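In the current project phase, we have settled on a layout for protein records. A sample record is reproduced below.
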Amino acid sequence: MRILVVEDSKVVSRILQHLIAQELDCEVDFAVDLASAKLLLEQKEYFLAITDLNLPDAQEGEIVRLVLSKQTPCIVLTGSLDSEQRKRLLQLGIVDYILKENRFSYEYVVRLVHRLQRNKNVKVLVADDSMVSRKFVRSLLEQHLYQVIEADDGNSAWDILQNQPDVQLLITDYNMPGLDGFGLILKVREKFSREELAIIGLSSDSDESLSARFIKNGANDFLQKPFVHEEFHCRVLNTLDSLDMLRKLWDQANLDYLTGVYNRRYFFGLFEEQIKQIKQKQGTLTVALLDIDFFKRVNDTHGHDVGDEVLVEFSARLKHFFGQHFTVSRFGGEEFTVAFKGLNEEKVFALMDKFRSQLEMKPIATSKGDMFITVSTGIAGLADDSLDELIQRADKALYDAKESGRNLVCIEA
């Protein structure tokens, strides 16, 4: 990613250079006037330009039109801005303007650039029966590089979310035919948690209670129409930053810090909730407990760093083999589990034995060279017992696999 900074103040340029180097992984070119910026824009393509509004050879904001003519997103820096200038800049289609007031102003610029970099991969669904309103919101979002999908009513929006679960933000109007904004949010929250999907409600209705009702029904935020560009962008930015933070917190609580697979806490939280339903529906749940053979030797001989490399690669192979359809977790140390909903012990045995066979044939590359490892596995199917008892029976089968020579798969007798 390459950024152009057009700024005649050496102090401001140094501040931006320092902050960008700290926070962003990108290349930066600097220009001090319109002429040098024009040369750079003719020679190179830029992801984004950060430009001072008034330059020594361009006092009327000509740099903004030049940047936008190259189809390059533009963030404007300025020491002052009257209402007419503000309107003209927003009508031109800039990303945002920032007043040069203090260090926080420049930190906001860098935060915005970082957000724009991520926005290229963020899908936003806009649900509104008014084409004019929908297109306006779309244009604002596209200025910030989001992938935008449109729906003309609540039912269409729900269908899109069913087929495209990677949508990260839903922006929905209140008054829509068929399924209104409230009804849509209620359906969405039954399927998508706050860590999966953020929601912003919109309405031109004068009812003062709407904002509270939207948020109580599951929205993250609410905007009253008509709204100004800046407020819209700030609300979207803050909502998505909060979504990122929620996801980080969820990951810290539920994923193993080293390998990235689910941790013991997540496994028990998930299946302790589900096990009653599985029993009531007379369903099937089979658990496989795996232990890397002689793993202590790896740590003792080569050190814990190499041991970590083995654990990371072993986890990656488990996820690749099972993770698309089944739940892979690390219980601690070199012990892992895979939970199979809907499969009996015999089918799980066949899968686990195939994994075991492939594992022993392909070495794991480490910083100390290739290493061949094997794994012992115990399998148990859910009977009339608790999750703890199910794990204990799988553990007994794992013990039998180790006692029988390791590199084996055993079903609990």
